[in-house]
Amino acid sequence: MAILIHNSLTKKKEELVPLDGKTVRMYSCGVTVYDKCHIGHARSLYIFDVVRRYLKYRGYDIRFVRNITDVDDKIINKAKELNKSFDDVVRENIKAYERDLKNLGIRKADREPRATKYIPKIIAFVEALIKKGFAYEVDGDVYYSVRKFKNYGRLSGQSIDQMIEAARIEQDPKKRDPLDFALWKKAKEGEKCWPSPWGKGRPGWHIECSCMSMNELKSETIDIHAGGRDLIFPHHENEIAQSEALTGKPFARHWIHHGLLTINGQKMSKSLGNFITLDEVFERYSSDILKLFFLQSHYASPVDFSWEKMEEVKKAYGRVSILMKKLDKINKATGGMGSDWSLKRKTEFESAMDDDFNTPKALSVIYDMVNDCNKFMNSDTEGKQFLLRRAMDFIREVSDIFGINFLKESEISVEEEKLLMERIKARENKDFKKSDELRDALKTKGIIVEDTKEGQVWRRA
Ligand SMILES: [Zn+2]
Q: What is the pTM for the complete model shown?
């Protein structure tokens, strides 16, 4: 069956037909490393990881690129605010980001390019746009001439004049038109900068994604471009304008955007004091519970986070987990005739996911299956063990797509998991005294920790 994806560009559900057979080239806008990740970032990272895993499960050869924005005004401002060097802010936050990904159990992308490693290619890109008449330089800054690009506004569905209104763009007397945006920014005294044909400066934010996606995926047209809804305008609109002006080809065939996350109905912001970091979530819940919470909403919908909802999700997790524990004990396939009992659920699961990655519907199939199994266990149907075994294999397969381990919670408490995470942190900070103390604390709880090349592993004593 075909996989349907809602395309933000055409505003329609469209069949995924990759440009190149079964190869899917996917790019997702990653984090800007000026601060720690909050749960909104976690949703973005996780949801597209599920898309990637599901497409792989469906037999696609997915090439997934997720960038790191390591040069930006926000980083410059943060460094000033904290009285730290630009490089320190970047280094610390990349380290924290990598730790968060690990704690979330989200795999690395196939390529994770950083903007600052792309400066020569970005400069060549900007030069080509100037040559083609789509960009102009004014005193060390280079701007994109928005009105030269006739499809501008197609993605966000606005007219140019509406966009000027909506964006309330700050007045910059150097621009020829208020809607023009910076491709290259002249450096102020003491700012991080690189030499260029226009003097010392740094790239604007939008150009890096155009440049890195086409280069890393080795194609002028990519299959899927992903990001948050808040990136549609101006970021993605500008990416299209830059890329298509350069190549004359469509930039991305599918644009996929996730909805935004609120906290108790309010936008998350530091000034409102409702900013929740991942560390705070992990103090109370495991990453599996957080993932299950995200799956309960469709990726394109907004999500409202609350601790009460997390408690509900924990119960749902528990129901599946208890069943899996029971099934785990029935570990001997006994032969017997199979039926299409678990296959039917599998088909239901796949059609939910094929239809624009409908995870809430897919989850309800799993929950129904758990109920089936519980009833089935108490019956004396012939070949019962064989069927339950198949059910377990199916839930395991699904767990792999969702990156959730339903057997984990039964093996480890939140408290124990917290100690394990603290130990990873301590080792990263080369605090070996603390890491040894934590090893002892875990040992008294019956958990043996070992350090391997792949990192910390643990087992029950
Ligand atoms: Zn981007």
A: 0.86
